């Protein structure tokens, strides 16, 4: 048996599978996010431990025999978070999360420093880890002086699981301290940002064994023998393992809290100016590129909270087929934006509202706004030389056939929907554990899911959506002028 632990922004998911990858059981626990000031996003690491304890208690109650045969655990986690420990291993302050934009000034300063883009392969975005520590040094110097280790969120969970301090290449690639081509910490980048290598975790590949489950947990969970814990990875890299996306030409679109268009790469070929992320993959000698929007299903959750209807109810207002763009435009910059704008200050907007605008029209505008933003990402990826002939749709938003058909039409490529099942980061984490425990190759384990349906672009509506996309593109400069 193998366990995948996916630590998301809103909670932890535990997925128990057998050696064939078949689902045995799953459990989820929520985690709260605090927003103490505008642009701030923080989380208490104790919530991650409590969530894991709760999820495993549920799995033990439901599947004690299967859990007793556990041989390996893989980890996936939201990237870029700054979890700060003192010399005794105590947490110094709440973790500063990936969607926190307080360090925009520090990010700009690091990004302008010679060597950062060239070595890290990326723009230094405000959400990345290095500018968070630069902000801390300026605004919370007493805490900064006590920092002995900086861990990414899932690596703090690993510390609790194993007692080992380690990080993997794919997650650490999002810190702005990693030489992404060399797959190692950069002494130059660390020095230029006021950090030291001894403050960083040891590095392992995502499928490499990073430690053993602590005997106390082995006993508590009723596990009969030794259990390895592998490196794991950042959530999108591990999700790619879950859907077998690791060869050149493989790609997916993810409609989760954030939105992603990802393409696997067989070599390191960054293009930082495009605001496309170029990171190490969770398997050796492989990289990936992705465009990222900060709010995808988060936009629907925001609309849901304001209209008092669930996202599923709102989506249901539109049916399952697109029939042309609406009259209302929505810019989905609720938390700023990454690709292609790298703009932490921009905020969202509706245009074209009228007295007749109803819940369905607002829902359509939000879905279209997210779709247009993903088209921006796809264009940025193409500008780096990436060539994708089709995409696989994953994430909670992919349950809306309307949304998937919209994206296929906007991107002008077919989008595949996998058969019902778990094909996200939790499965990818379990697959990494399988590779680490058995020594099998990733290709043997990380097969692509069967496709239930292929959604083709609507050629009859392509021109209308191109016109709407051009209108959307024209709105960003106008909105930027109001938020200089």
UniProtKB/TrEMBL annotation:
An MF annotation (GO) of this entry: D-xylulokinase activity
Presence of the UniProt keyword Transferase in the record: yes
Binding site for substrate: 79-80
GO annotation, biological process: D-xylose metabolic process; xylulose catabolic process
Domain Carbohydrate kinase FGGY N-terminal residue range list: 1-242
A Pfam family: FGGY_N
Domain annotation Carbohydrate kinase FGGY C-terminal: ranges: 252-435
Residues under site feature: Important for activity: 6
EC annotation from Swiss-Prot or TrEMBL: 2.7.1.17
Active site: 235
Keyword Transferase: yes
Catalytic class of the enzyme: transferase
PANTHER family listed in its UniProt record: SUGAR KINASE, XYLULOSE KINASE
Described purpose of this protein according to its UniProt entry: Catalyzes the phosphorylation of D-xylulose to D-xylulose 5-phosphate.
Identification of the protein by name: Xylulose kinase
Organism per entry: Pseudoruegeria aquimaris
Name of encoding gene: xylB
